[in-house]
Amino acid sequence: MEKILSSCAEMFLTLGFKSVTMNDIAHKLGISKKTLYAHFPNKEILVKNCVFHFFDYVTGEISKISNNASNPIAELYDIKMFMMRQIKNEKISPQFQLQKFYPDIFKELKEKQMTFMITQMSNCLEKGVSLGLFRSNLNIRFTARLYFNGMMGIKDQRLFPPNMFQHSQLMTDYLEYHVRAICTESGIAIFNNFENHAHV
After folding, report:
1. Biggest CA pair distance of the chain
2. Domain 43-198 belongs to what topology?
């Protein structure tokens, strides 16, 4: 089951939810369609299982990064680098396709993403404030939600058409925008160090 979901998630992220058929998946996995349908009665059920399997993987990895980071700025930077490695094909927008073709799954995913990201960002902001890296007057509940909204916003192809913006660059630009707005001078110095190493 794990292998099926991992392989399917890879195909959906690379080729898009719309274009991948149950035939394609069965062929890729080297199994019959009958076997595939025995596990997943239709494509929508398979898509839902893949989406939340991938969500669990991503949130698990982000939690590990958060627990192991040397400071909250390193945490944000490492999460960005991890998320950029998950982008399989800049021309395909899985989020957009999911919203268009599987709106109920998209809605459920967004709720889960919101809960996870706001909690994770709130913890990160609190750590940063306590270490003197983020401004002490930050409204944490507001800033965590604003960050989530921005992360969802840069995935909106109407706002950021792929022919004008690379998603990986958007993630870099958004993180810089976010960090420079919340950091103290000490925090900015640490962030600049990451930026300088990135451009070496």
Report:
1. 61
2. Tetracycline Repressor; domain 2 (1.10.357)
